[in-house]
Amino acid sequence: MLEPQLILELMVLGLATGFMAGLLGIGGGMLLGPFLTLILSARGVGTDLAVKMAIATSMCTIVFTSVSSLLAHHRRGAVQWPLVRAIAPGIVLGGLVGSWGVFAAIKGATLALLFAGFIGFAATQMLLNRQPKPSRALPGTWGLASVGSVIGLVSGLVGAGGAFISVPYLVAHNVGLIYAVATSAALGFPVALSNAAGYAISGQGVANLPPGSLGYIWLPALLVIACCSVLTAPLGARVAHAMPVAQLKRVFAGVLYCLAAYMLAKGLRA
């Protein structure tokens, strides 16, 4: 059973995660990973296992936040469903490969450094605000499926919903930012679902898991965070549609830089 202070911490984290998921389409995984690593480490879980469990649990919460967030964006007509249908099959394949096979074989410290590197790169691309060439268009069905496989694989390794790849990628191919955010929120569901299955399977038999774990997934934290995050995701989506695009990009980049710095420090210390 979780102590009251931990429940309160997870509730606050869930509310913040839901808001950021709606605002930025990031599904909350990149926000949760560092904080759950901190919470688990403070409770005596070794760094390597804490990073892996934080990544896995963070990803699982996206199953819930992505639904709440995508419905809010869908009601505003911003989700590009043809893109979702083209990219999703590759996401499922890449996610299963990443979470079921590669994830279990890589050390937690390496995963922390990968996390820091990828989101730092995504933040820089967003902050530079480079304008795509007017002629740059999205690839065809097979090309989008290939992009999806990369999103699914990398997301499975770092516990994020894939928006740190999909938002910059879509924007670079002349998809408007708010449409890219909304579409990435929808893509977060297949990303999370496929990876959650892989984490649950690959973590079977791992030693020193805390009580209430399903493979690498920490179920008590998942329950509290999911229940709170779905409440604030629609609010975040509403704010996203009201904010100027340039300001939204700066917020996105700022959040990513902060989280990259924490995970970089965690990986280097480990």
3D architecture notes:
This protein has 270 residues and is mainly alpha-helical. The protein has one domain. The protein contains 10 helices and 2 strands; from the N terminus they run H-H-H-H-H-H-H-H-E-E-H-H. The chain has a two-stranded antiparallel ribbon with strand order 1-2. Helix 1 runs antiparallel to helix 2. The chain starts with a helix and ends with a helix. The model has no long low-confidence stretch (mean pLDDT 80).
What's a quick, concise take on this entry?
By secondary structure, the protein is an all-alpha fold.
How is the topology of this model organized?
Elements: H1 4-24, H2 29-42, H3 47-75, H4 81-105, H5 108-128, H6 141-158, H7 163-172, H8 177-202, E1 213-214, E2 217-218, H9 219-242, H10 245-269
Helix pairs in contact: 1-2, 1-3, 1-9, 2-3, 3-5, 3-8, 3-9, 4-6, 4-8, 5-10, 6-8, 7-8
